[in-house]
Amino acid sequence: MSHPNPPSSDARTLDPRSLRALAHPLRMRILDLLSDHGPSTSARLAERLGENTGTVSWHLRHLAEHGYIEEEEGRGTKRERWWRRKDRTLVIQTRDLQVDPQTRAAVSVYRQHYLERTFQRAARALSVPPTGDWIGAGNMSDWGDVRMTPDQLRALGAELLAVIKRHVPDPEAPVAPEAQPVLIQFQVLPMLPEPEPESGAESESESGAESAAKSESSEESE
Questions:
Q1: How does pLDDT run across 119-144, given as a tens digit for each residue?
Q2: From the centroid of its chain, how far is CA 31?
């Protein structure tokens, strides 16, 4: 979610207001479609999403107001506007977004959508068996029993990002004839213990259960 290196020129670091504007499931799905399939109209997006055109139009205007998308000039009409994504990379610095409950909730919504989309893209990649030289070219790894300090985990994430950046070809460079789209994903996450329930909430729950049992008992006796 966070990016330890300076963002590239086409990256946008989200502030609390921008994140709250984006953190809506339908708006994030719209942005995904514009990223994956290129410019589109509200009607085309609505058909893909199974939503009402008016609802999609409203969310498109909201995304445009906050600078996530822009109208594609010279294409379409006043009644059919074409929209495209502006920034290809969004940077989420979670340490800077713990300012209030609303922004923390927006971070949670964004993370949930990010996780779902990550899983969907991996499932899509695995749905087509590799052939030829692509057999064995990919890799899936999981280390689930590792203990680190926050600084060690942060350093690992930064180094992995640096390696990926070093290997990803320049978008302006010629593409080799045998090149195909590839999916690169990684997570370095702390597996922290779940918080203990508050004693007050637990006692309230127990007392509520007792009163419910007494109520059921009285009803049965009637």
A1: 988 999 999 999 999 999 999 999 87
A2: 11
